[in-house]
Amino acid sequence: MKVLALDPGFAKMGYAEAYIDENNSITLGLAGTIENVREDETFNEYLNVGIKNIVDRFSYLLSLTSPDIIVAELVPVGRLGSRSELVVAGITACKVVAYQAELPWTDVAANSYKKTITGNGNATKGEIKRKMYEIFPHLKELDKQERATQKEAGDKVTGFPADLYDAVALGVWGLENATD
């Protein structure tokens, strides 16, 4: 089974492909973020451009990964403050594309997948990141390389965003718990 996992967001949506390889081990495929940078446009212009970007990038991801199922963190509507509308719009755009492709979709509450992955339903972003390093040790080296690239480019050195690690954790959860 192959899972495409999403950590919802509008400014930054994490994604990760996870699957069971020929050795029956969990393997990480593509992972990254879909980003929408807000310039000086109005809210509605940002929303329209962002939805188009998400639909285009998500459709492309589906063509690259050919998942059996999509797993996403359940969006706590209204609990994200001013970001709620944008986050719901972003994940809804992905759901529409998935439904049109006739792909099964599973939503999971953050505390549910965090408890399964770390043993703590209230795990922090840092705890998720450390657990993903345990499962996928090569992620730590890739993050180190990303930091070096950011430094060389004169960018702020942050490494991979937390949204990426959350998506990876959702992918692991999906392989162990989701059914298509």
Give a brief outline of the structure.
This protein is of the alpha/beta class and 180 residues long.
Low-confidence blocks of residues: none
**CATH topology, what is it called?**
Nucleotidyltransferase, domain 5
Helix content: 40-55%
Assign the structural class, choosing from mainly alpha, mainly beta, alpha/beta, alpha+beta, or little secondary structure: alpha/beta
Q: What is the rounded distance between the termini?
A: 9 Å
State the shape. globular
* Rounded average pLDDT: 92
Q: Outline the biggest β-sheet.
A: 5 strands, mixed
Task: Supply the number of helical segments.
Answer: 6
Instruction: Quote the beta fraction.
Output: 15-25%
What can you tell me about this protein's structure?
- This protein is an alpha/beta fold and 180 residues long.
- The chain has one domain (2-177): Nucleotidyltransferase, domain 5, CATH 3.30.420.10.
- 51% of the residues lie in helices and 19% in strands.
- The protein is built from 6 helices and 5 strands.
- The chain has helices at 43-65, 84-100, 110-118, 125-135, 138-152, 162-177, and strands spanning 2-7, 12-20, 26-35, 69-73, 105-108.
- A 5-stranded mixed beta sheet has the order 3-2-1-4-5, sandwiched between helices.
- It is globular and about 50 Å long.
- The N and C termini lie close together (9 Å).
- 29% of the residues are buried.
- The model has no long low-confidence stretch (mean pLDDT 92).
Architecture blueprint of SSEs:
Blueprint: E1 2-7, E2 12-20, E3 26-35, H1 43-65, E4 69-73, H2 84-100, E5 105-108, H3 110-118, H4 125-135, H5 138-152, H6 162-177
Parallel strand pairs: 1-4, 4-5
Antiparallel strand pairs: 1-2, 2-3
